[in-house]
Design a protein that fits this description.
This protein is about 30% helix and about 15% strand. It has helices spanning about 40-45, 90-95, 105-110, 120-130, 140-145, 155-165, and strands spanning about 20-25, 30-35, 65-70, 70-75, 90. It has two domains: about 20-95, Beta-grasp domain (Ubiquitin-like (UB roll), Roll); about 105-165, DNA polymerase, domain 1 (Orthogonal Bundle). It has a five-stranded mixed sheet with strand order 2-1-5-3-4. Helix 3 packs across helix 6. The protein is elongated. The mean pLDDT is about 90. A hairpin with a 2-residue loop joins strand 1 and strand 2 (about 30-35). It has six helices and five strands.
């Protein structure tokens, strides 16, 4: 369909119909009408106002948006929200709280496993999944399983220390 000079070439010619979707996030049910093109990341942040999950690269390369879907880690920027219907989604807000931190959250504080803090939620969510995955005892094996999460500040040694502490390897 040709575009008129007033329409940019990327304009959507018709309004997109919303899709009724029920998401189960952090143990709560959310009945939503979603744009079928909306990512889980954008839905969590903009619709459900769960802003702990960060938008880093928006291309699945940095891990800042790591969440759990049915207990497995996933980059929320690469998942369409409608594809997560019927799944249990856990964000950093559902992992622990200020009153009852998850052991990894407490270990990140104790080991100074963050600097600017931007990657911290994704790092912790990835590490929490790692606790339930086959992983050897060495720091190198932990680093390999955490390789999908980037820390621009370079707090990697402290992050590995925090994970190994929780794993009982320190």
């Amino acid at each position: 369909m040709p575009h008129s000079p007033a329409d940019p070439p990327h304009a959507v010619p018709q309004a997109v119909q919303g899709v009724p979707t029920t998401l189960h996030v952090n143990g709560r049910r959310h009945a939503l009408i979603l744009d079928p093109r909306a990512t889980l990341l954008d839905t969590l942040r903009e619709t459900l106002h769960l802003t702990g999950t960060k938008k880093g690269c928006d291309h699945g390369q940095c891990g800042a948006c790591t969440v759990h879907i049915d207990g497995r880690r996933a980059n929320a920027c690469l998942v369409l929200a409608v594809a997560a219907r019927g799944c249990a989604v856990t964000t950093i807000e559902g992992l622990g709280s200020a009153r009852g931190m998850h052991p990894l959250q407490a270990a990140f504080v104790a080991h100074d496993g963050y600097q600017c803090g931007y990657c911290t939620a994704g790092q912790i969510m990835s590490a929490a999944a790692l606790l339930h995955e086959p992983c050897g005892d060495s720091d190198d094996e932990v680093r390999e399983l955490m390789s999908g999460n980037i820390c621009r500040c370079g707090a990697y040694a402290n992050i590995v220390d925090a994970i190994q502490d929780v794993r009982g390897k320190r």
